[in-house]
Amino acid sequence: MAVVSTPATLERAVPAIDNAEVLRIRNDFPVLNQLVNGQPLVYLDSGATSQNPASVIEAEQEFYEQRNAAVHRGAHHLAVEATEAFEDARQTIADFIGADYEETIWTSNATEGLNLLSYALSNAGLWAAQGRGDRGLKELALNPGDEIVVTEMEHHANLIPWQELAFRTGATLRYIPIADDGSLRMDQAAAIIGARTKVLAFTHASNVLGIINPVTELTALGHSAGALVVLDACQSAPHLPLNVKELGVDFAVFSGHKMLAPTGIGVLYGRQELLDILPPFLTGGSMITTVTMERAEYLPAPQRFEAGTQRISQAVAMAAAANYLTETGLERIHAWEAELGQRMVSGLESIPGIRVLGPAAGKERIGLAAFDVEGVHAHDVGQFLDSRGIAVRVGHHCAQPLHRRLGLTATTRASAYLYNTTDDVDRFLEAVAGVRAYFRA
Q: Taking every annotated instance into account, which residue ranges of this chain make up the domain Aminotransferase class V (predicted)?
């Protein structure tokens, strides 16, 4: 049996995932065992929202049945147990990404995490101007003439918050362009990232192109310019081993609903020395030390950024999801999804009238493929596939500038996960092959 390399924490090679194991994994996901339009469901939309294994569903249910209470607020038995479960979940997620406990902040999703960070940086300027907070705030504050750098392939969640931060502070937003194959123009990145760059924000893996960006190289460029480096890990944390310390980024965000967890829960990672001096974004209860009628003093991270009643059951369930992925093996998951991704791309490229975005077959990508069908709108493609029990994503995938750069308004995207088989991909390819004839394109 083939083997794949494993993280350094594992001392021996483990078997690669194969179709037989995937069929066993599928039994853990209740929603997958159903018919859609009379056909067995083929779920290829995990890039938008993944499905939940029974262990995750049960973890959230068990919290409500056994220990539902507000955290950090009560001395009674249920409150203590709820707080322990909530904070144990934080430690699990910190371990999952190679972070420290104090560096792991709960958010509603990655979008909130990016907005939290952009507003905290806005407040850094306000606090510094008033002589409030740590003296290091002045170095974090953005001013007219400063620059924020993103890439042309960003999801709107990692673009619009930075547009608005530039608007609020007078900074300038710049971007690293892509080549025709979707790869970043790294030859231009070195010229764009410079002495004026205060923030460099980019995606680890594109939700449209499937390309995995050179994080280490980009981070080195950002840090050499003295910039804060922000990583969108939404399409990487669920699918491949992620160690934020080894990558060297200053901040990272990802969402639970893309990694087998419920909706309404996400994570912001930040280096502790930065989090402890950044002003909070949301304010209220549970994140303060002392309050008078005139002012408040705030706790250090992570509570500094967690005002109000938190997403307790969702956090517990997200920890269960992280455990499920860890027990299965992120290296193994990544290798299996890469195999499915190559199968999708090579199959799509063989169908006349299909244009696949991103790296060609044989080049590294995560397990997704966005494509255009000549003469057929993406929404029609999606409905055609749905009639055959195949769930995919259609539209601009919250990446309008990227689609515009590639001369498109919308595409169809198939995205695989650990519960997809090669048969799922083959059913998908067989259906796509019939799209143009069906619509007489």
A: 42-428
